[in-house]
Design a protein that fits this description.
- The chain has five helices and three strands; from the N terminus they run H-H-E-E-E-H-H-H.
- With 146 residues, the protein is of the alpha+beta class.
- The chain has a three-stranded antiparallel beta sheet, covered by helices on one side.
- Helix 4 crosses helix 5.
- The N and C termini lie far apart (84 Å).
Amino acid sequence: MSSKTKIVVLHMKEIIYTGIFLLFLIVLGVLMFFMFGPGKSESVSTDPASVYTPGIYRSSIELNGNSFDMEVTVDAQKIRSIHLENLSESTAAMFPLVEPALEELASQIYSGQSLDELKYSSDQKYTALMLIRAIDEAVSKAELKE
């Protein structure tokens, strides 16, 4: 039975240096991961699809001394809602085409996300143009400025 036993002598100084070196490599690896990891490029660059600053934007409309607001709600990519705010019953009764014209325009804007080439009937021409101007004013407040 011949057994060749090898004795390895480690000096405590070498073990400590090796441990410090390994700890340094681990810290360096973690640092590199956080610097160049997958989440870094998304947080540094702005989303190219962002068109608007999210929020609620208003523009005023005045008809025969009666004032009300056009309210447009947007998120970063699209127009979410368009509606009239502070529209009194008397103003709605005096101008009955305002609400139906807005509903028609809003549905076109939601589907196309654009104020270009909106279609409206000839009997609602001036009402539609007034509403489009107010919507455009509110949307221009929401657009990102570069």
